[in-house]
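Hey Z.,

So I finally got round to the S-adenosylmethionine thing we talked about over coffee. Here's the setup:
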Amino acid sequence: MNVIHTPVLLEETLSLLAPRSGGEVMCDATLGEAGHAEAFLERFPDLQIIGIDADKSIQETAKKRLERFGARARFYHGRSEDFLARAAPARIAEFGIEKFDTVFIDLGVSLYHYVQSGRGFSFAKDEPLDMRVNPSEGETAADIIARLPEKELADLLYNNAEERYSRRIARAIVEERARSPITRSKRLADIVARSAPPQYRRRAAHPATKTFQALRIEVNGELSGLRPLLESAWGALRNRGRLGVISFHSLESRVVKAYFRELAKDGSGRLVTKKAVAPHLEEIRMNAPSRSALLRVVEKI
Ligand SMILES: C[S@@+](CC[C@H](N)C(=O)[O-])C[C@H]1O[C@@H](n2cnc3c(N)ncnc32)[C@H](O)[C@@H]1O
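And the result:
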């Protein structure tokens, strides 16, 4: 077992989503390497967790990590919106649960995906351009790059990651793919770097950062699937249950904020976090990827 992801906003999550009675059941809808889940099971000896992940290989790591908790940790492989939508109206036979006391969602992908998956998430590596968290379903990033007309490719970069040079990057991709299909992460990173204006190349972030982010979001339906994920999570919660969501980029954050506001406005929810909770400077210093994380919690009335 090789755990590399550092859970973000851990103490804040433990405190805002702490069980409030005995024998509670929490759904960790984005289990990943189970960093949050392990901390919850350790701190609250009475708590049970159902952990869901669309990625089978990362879930294997989670299973090993949580083995010592026995039946307090159970698992489901698949997309959480599917699982939770099934769970909401009726009892899920295999887990014997009617509703969850807590649903926790830590959006996006894990450090594992960039560093160890071998699926082309990182512009710093030379790997097949796949980017699917579940490699057994849907289109790869290479498929999308090969298929989309230039304008749609530009729109994708702009809409998913607010890439300001979306048009020139899309043009460069289309020119290059006419020579030969773009199937490797390194080639894509080079194409984007060459097409970006010099001032973009001088910045701290690699010029292909947003292109890779936009493709990853598209491949895994991270934005289109977010609202259904939140709705299914809300439906699967008992009254007084809490939904906690950590978002990582502004587009994601906007969807979560709007949905929570709606719940508060129509009287079905109470905002536990009036203002989204951001990491302390110390956490950002220790774990740079946490810098954009925001935690929001809403309670069902
Ligand atoms: C940021 S990581 C979670 C990290 C975890 N909290 C930890 O501390 O190790 C997000 C995980 O959720 C998974 N994931 C993302 N969207 C999902 C979805 N809609 N359904 C199921 N799993 C999803 C990804 O495969 C990834 O492993």
